[in-house]
Every structure is written in structure tokens, then in C-alpha cells.
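Appendix C: a fully annotated inverse folding record. The material below is reproduced so that readers can follow the format used throughout the book. The structure is listed first as C-alpha cells, followed by the designed sequence.
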């Protein structure tokens, strides 16, 4: 495994992108991960699909790869692969709890359009 610099707002030199995790998101992720086996992390990725062309994917993962961007904050570990970071560079992962409900939201400055559910976007 390579040496990884881990910060709240991490920049990946290879792709030129950054990804941040808010305090609210970190608390919720840590809560979810506390019920999982040690070493489990949240992987945020982008895949083709959804109603706008791309969609965010949130999965639990116990494996880091050498090209993963790793963000650790408040007991939460978030992984973003290099390919996904090309679409999410400069983004922020937040957890929102409002009258409509609770959800993770990616605030992506690269998205030119998104659907009403907030999990699908286009560039």
C-alpha cells in the first residue's frame, strides 16, 4: 500500500481534483461504519446511468487501492477512485436532515444539470 496523505479536504495530484467531506457527513458515515466490521470504509463513485447520464454510487468497501483518494474525518473513512474523481473534482459530500428526509448529497461544481432526486447528474 502506498503512503497516503489523509485530510478533511483532500486533493489528488494525479487527477487535479479535490473532494471534501462535511462534518455532518462524517458523523453520519462514522455512525453507519460503527455497525460494520473494522476496516470498512464508504466508497463514493460515479457510474453511467440515472436519468441525467451519470449517477453517484455509495457502497461499503473494505479494500483500498493505490490510486484511491482517501479522506478521513471524525472516525469516517471515504474512498474515491481516480476515474470518479475526474467527474467529482471540487465536490463536497454532505449529509442533510430536513423536512423532506435524510440523505447524502454531493455538491458537484462540474454538474451542469441534475435530476430531482439529486443522485443523477450530467456534465
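Designed amino acids, in order:
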Amino acid at each position: 500500500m502506498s503512503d497516503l496523505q489523509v485530510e478533511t479536504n483532500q486533493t489528488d495530484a494525479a487527477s487535479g481534483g479535490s473532494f471534501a467531506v462535511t462534518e455532518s457527513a462524517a458523523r453520519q458515515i462514522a455512525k453507519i461504519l460503527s455497525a460494520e466490521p473494522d476496516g470498512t470504509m464508504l466508497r463514493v463513485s460515479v457510474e453511467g446511468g440515472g436519468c441525467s447520464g451519470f449517477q453517484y454510487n455509495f457502497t461499503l468497501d473494505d479494500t483500498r487501492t493505490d490510486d484511491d483518494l482517501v479522506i478521513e474525518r471524525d472516525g469516517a473513512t471515504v474512498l474515491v477512485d481516480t476515474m470518479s474523481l475526474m467527474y467529482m473534482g471540487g465536490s463536497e459530500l454532505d449529509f442533510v436532515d430536513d423536512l423532506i428526509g435524510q440523505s447524502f448529497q454531493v455538491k458537484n461544481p462540474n454538474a451542469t444539470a441534475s435530476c430531482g432526486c439529486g443522485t443523477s447528474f450530467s456534465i
